[in-house]
Amino acid sequence: MTPDLLEAGARRLSEHQTRAVDEGQTESGGRSAGIGRVLRGHAPDFTHGVALYIDDISVSFDGFKALNQLSLSIGVGELRCIIGPNGAGKTTMMDVITGKTRPDAGTAFFGSTIDLLKLRENEIAQVGIGRKFQKPTVYEPLSVWENLELSLKADRRVRASITARLSSEQTDRLQAMLERIHLRDQAHRQAGLLSHGQKQWLEIGMLLMQDPALLLLDEPVAGMTDEETERTAELFLSLAGQHSLVVVEHDMHFVAQLTQGHRTVTVLHEGRVLAGGTLAQVQANPQVVEVYLGR
Whole-angstrom distance between the N-terminal and C-terminal Cα of the chain? Predict the structure, then answer.
């Protein structure tokens, strides 16, 4: 990127950020945490091999139990698929993990030391949990490069100088991320002009720039073409081991691509775990067939 393009991009990025702050706007999932103050004194402890542990979580809305004593644990570096019918509690589970919804009862820990129920939504994002919603939320007036630059994990105050030059290490990270999310040739294209699948990849890249230990991904391939779905599966498989991933999905073909016959699939129903095991095992479970797969 030439110096004049850097300056122009920086000005637009700064103006967009300032305007959003002045109007009190942030992107979904607490993305502002990535450019705001850094939460200090909180570091997850993964020495026991558990990235996420939730136990007996219950959430009620006007008498309806969205979660009913839900218990679940995700290992460090694990890729876990969560399936289940609409209303099973999948979204509410993610809302609890990210601090958007407070449960009526239960516990939720990130690693063995961080009590998620004691943190605010932006603080949870800062300790290393990233969430991607089904609908992509990117800064559409900005270029792909600028979106990724804005998401760099750094201690940036509200009106901190986005005009500061990127270090060579940061530039290398951005270029590597463009390659990883299949958008190298779209680096200078306005994000709003990308296809739906490309926007999904960009948002995933924006989350990855913040280097989260745990990624929550809600129906990430909804609306994608078959080729885009295949590339997304390859991307997620490359992330497993480096990050813990929880993927909520209805596309059984995509789930099969991710689990590869051996990873665990968890089935939720009526706010609690109905079954778990390999995809073949849950597909053969009569209860799962009755409430979900047989529909």
Answer: 52
